[in-house]
Protein 1
Amino acid sequence: MSVTTPFRSELSPGRAGFGQLLHAEWTKFRTVRGWIIGLVIGLVVMAGLGLFTAGSASSSCQASGGGPVRSGAACGLGFALGPAGEPVSDSFYFVRQPLTGNGTITVRLTSMTGLLPPATPPANQPSNGPLDTRPGVEPWAKAGIIIKSSLTGGSPYAAMMVAADHGVRMQWNYTGDTPGLPGAVGPQNPRWLRLTRSGDVITGYDSADGTHWTEVGAVTLSGLPRVVQAGLFAASPVDLQSPYCSGYCNGPGGPTQATGVFDHVSAPGGAWAGGYVGAEYASGVGSYHPAGGGFSVTGSGDIAPIPPGHGGEADSAITVSEYLLGTFAGLIALGVVAALFITAEYRRSLIRVTFAASPRRGRVLAAKAVVVAAVSFVVGAVAAAFAVLAGTAITHARGYYSAPVSGATELKVIIGTGLFAAVAAAGALAVGAITRRGAAAVTIVIVALAVPVFLAISRAVPAGAGDWLLRVTPAAGISLQQAYPQYQQVASTVYTPLNGYYPLSWWAGLLVLCGWAAAALGVAAYLLRRRDA
Amino acid sequence: MTEAVVSARHARGAWAGLPDALHAEWTKLRTLASTWWLLLAAAALTVTVGAAVAATYQCSGGPAACAPAVTGADPAKISLTGVYLGQVIVALLAVLAVGGEYGTGMIRVTLAATPRRLTMLAAKMAVVTGWTLAASVAAVAGSLLTGWLILPGRGLSAANGYVVPSLANGADLRAFGGSVLYLALIALLALGVTTAVRDSAVAIGVVLGLLYLFPIVSAVIPSHTWSRHLEQVAPMTAGLYIEATAGVAALPLTPWQGLGVLALWAAGALLLGATVLRLRDA
């Protein structure tokens, strides 16, 4: 009499684990030559386009009134560089006196008026003739007090000011901005402003009556010299709504002017001197007059960061998003490979063997997703790192200017590109599992990822619709690549997806992308279980 | 007897099998449910997207604010926005017409029946082009009509200085006919690429990559010179110059030159595909 024992695998239980499944899927992945070739093509195109950007950048310029046409580095930048090497506007009318050591400057601002360019372009406006203007104040026109380390454009500063439509602000080193008292300034509604220097620390106060003071902020300007320049200033940025610009501005828009009337001026003493800072970057129009025991100060220009981008004042700066313009070449290659990673199994019926070996289908999908996501992360991050780092190095070597980003931002963009690629590839795999046909899956993935970006940046759809496409479609993941902040205190025409400014923050974009990928993976897992292989 | 028939067929020349091949390809494509769905989807998507974009367009403020010189708007181009998406489905149809046969192994049967491979390719080109033209006429005519109905109410009216659209108007006729040809050329480009790479998924990836990567790169790249050159050689950007009815003089190429660029891409892809088809085993 024979006893039949049920079959028991001699393999240890560990062999059925997720690690083994991952190993099996990784082996399948790396041994298909076509897929590896696809990945290499994606990586090379993506990284190569970054180098192409750096290598092809060109600019030329000619002095007004003729002269030789120069190109590249010989043109100069056309803007000042701030303490962190970033492009900044630093042009304003400055009524100043030297401040030695510690000290305080206090003023009362009683009115702010200004001039705007005409709403429609005048016929035959002579390029250097007097401006045709209308009364009005640019919303971000500024008048107030400032302590600045030197008169050099881009030097460190801290300032207390009234911005025409944005109340009292304390601003420092171009990018810093803290709001103080709200509301517009006027004779019935004056604003008292005070700046105090103590060593490297400058503290700003505001007050509505000159008695009750509120601290707005305290900032440290490291390396401030013993003698600094302190005084009153007025500045008014270009009006972007104006279709008119005639030789007074670098970028789009028309010139404006602001006048602040100050009294109760209290400063350590010394003679006042008026002058334009950064006249080479703006109109250089400005003046000051004694008025009722104080000053009336008139000026144009701005003290603010310049967001880099096409058509802006820092047009010649090459940006991180330009180095990364090959991202979608890489993503399309990764999407094709990720979709094929499962559809090829269906086509060759290998999927039946796979499921016979690992009957838990959801785990197979998970293992495949982990493998493609990991590979895609590496490809995306390596290509992005190469494009950004080598691109920047080439730009510098050719004598051009690359808009700088901090090391942390650089890392965020590189890791972010890797994450974008990883999650997109996992989503592409899920779509492949749902459609079971490579062509359909690849089409869906490209329409979901690349087409919204194309529509948004080529202005094929209205700008508002383009922004919504970059909020709700998986293409929202591109927000991970935003390298430069959008300053709410700087109005600019460059804040568009074309220039790498996206409507979502990086984490919101990542969430939207992950949501889509998770939904696709969920549907895929459900269908894998429900359907026959 | 059999030998006589065979030699008689050979005597009729290289393209003697073309009518039979055409009939075979026609039958194959006609009897696939996906063909009908894709054609319907291509036309519906094109018209819907065009109508949606036209409906979101709004310019109010009379001739001063909405004159053609101020808005730069091109009513035909706005109406035809849907072509950006409809072309994806047209390309997919063409890719599947060839790639589907490679996927299932049907290609071996097809080539056994039509051993002259270029005859087979020519028959496929003719049938796919025919189907695409039919869907394109519906898609483009529907889009233009929808635009003509919607846009005058959105500020692009004759009162504001826009030309009243009509097929008697040369530019509108060119936009209509040219867009139909554009979609047919996209199908031929996709057919050529698929014949060369012989895998549907890879082929659609390559075709859509060619279409959408060029304009993304040319828009972002910092060099104006390179941007212009890339626009001139990009199959989609240059090909769609044919839609322009306003600002034609400012385009980097004339509309017909632009369509010619796409025709060159399609011809190149078909040439590559034909070469691969002749040289390699199926």
Protein 2
Amino acid sequence: MVTNQWSNAVSDNFERFKKCAVDVLSVDESAVVPEATFESLDADSLDLVELVMALEEEFDVNVEEEELEGVNTIQAAFDLVTSKL
Amino acid sequence: MVSARVVLVTGGNRGIGHAIAKRFAAAGHQVAITSRSGQADDSDDLLVVQADVTDSASVDAAVSEVEEKLGPVEILVSNAGITKDGLVLRMSDDDFMDVIDANLNGGFRVAKRVSKGMMKSRWGRMIFISSIVGLGGQAGQANYAASKAGLIGMAKSFAKEFASRGITANVVCPGPIETDMLAALTDAQRDAMLSVVPVGRLGQGDEIAAAVEFLASDSAAYITGTVLPVDGGYSMG
């Protein structure tokens, strides 16, 4: 029971995350997979800043500049944001 | 027919800033101005917001108030500025820093704060009011000149960073303009200044406002990172 609730919460969050990524990066939903790198999604540094701002608003969290260091994939960004929930 | 925009003019309570604010308001835009006191004369058609541009929290609160009452800022005229003139040897560290903080850092604070909204709407105009003094220097104004020159490098960086988002950033360098700031000069100083202005007179605040209005327009979408002196020919060549 608990496991299902947990994985539902995670997949709900990922859906919300995906929507932000699609809106900001103008990519297809199908491209937003955990292992995708931002480079492969044609996201430059300004895109990333915009994405982080959108995620901060969507999830009502705060992400510090230093924390973005090394966050190169969708999975990494998702983990960073959800770790703050 | 020009689309009505939300305009913010810092230091729009008097002088050049006020002339700019009035011109935008007369053209049908929704205009907010900041002043340190939160007061301004001749401001019935303006939203007056209290702000001290040397304080990030104050800037944040002021812009939030504008966003709440008028909407996201689409055109920013970063004009707030002070002078603390003095010869280098007699200029304290504080006098130097205070002017940099208000004129340059203040410009950064406000521009950064409004850039988020501009990025979201993929449209924005930032016009930084520099000065001919920022281009050519002026004895007794090392601090003011440094702050105004600094705005140029900063504006160009903004221009490059935000170009892909439909946001332009430009600089206007007013020459000698008939305002309080110049009323403080002696007759001898004014005459000396006028003798090197080819057009042979002081400029009017509205003449600066006209240049700013153009740079803020849809027609100026292909103009970014420029420095436009409006100075009767003073700084040419």
